[in-house]
Amino acid sequence: MLYRVQGIVIRSMDYGEGNKIITLCTESHGKIAVFVRGARKAKSRHAALVQPFTYGEFNFIRSGTGMGTLNQGEVIESNHKLREDITLAAYGAYGCELVDKALLDNETGHFWFDQLKAYLSFLSEGRDPVILTALFEMKVLQAAGYGPQVDTCMFSDETEGEFWLSVRLGGILSKRERRQDPAAIALSPGVLRLLRLFARLDIRRLGNIDVREETRAEIKQIMSAFMEVQLGLKLKSRRFLEQLEKFEM
Predict the structure, then answer these.
(1) N or C terminus of the chain: which is more exposed, having fewer CB within 10 Å?
(2) How far is the C-alpha of 194 from the C-alpha of 207, rounded, in Å?
(3) All domains of the chain in start order, with CATH
């Protein structure tokens, strides 16, 4: 059967002599693997289409739910800036690996596609990668059913005052209910406001947010802990990103 989809290359690997297998996050068919014959050859017309972060239209033949074979395709947005800067490439790779691990094969991918497309586009535009990535992580957590409860305390209806965040329980605790998790993390007012904003904001509507360095560091630590505890994900791209940031300090 012939398929025609829009998708983003979230993984690209060599296969055999001169070929590639790419994994797409598609707008209409979720996550799909596609075999691209001769993509590594110097004069291949598909060379640009199989690059990581590429957003394009892909026509492929597939029988059942197995791997497709590319017939033809067209690049819509190359996102080449992400491949030209090692830091941006690291953030882009993390976003793509996150979707690759969290999105099941053939699961409806419209939401994931829209959020990833916006994430990569904003990275290319030079938006703050720490804030952008924290928001993207929040959207992934929510889509996977693990979005943290940040509007009210998990054990009361309190919305104002001092709060602590329980990564294990998945939400905020008031001063009175902090005993529910002694390991809960104290939240500054700025981080709590950001978490509440992230919980209700579609990444496609993100404007410019000016955040203090201390707040950036705090939100980054919190979201990283959530991804590891709630989703159980320890990604290679995340470890590389952390090593890169230590090197740049």
Answers:
(1) C
(2) 13
(3) 2-78 (2.40.50.140), 127-248 (1.20.1440)
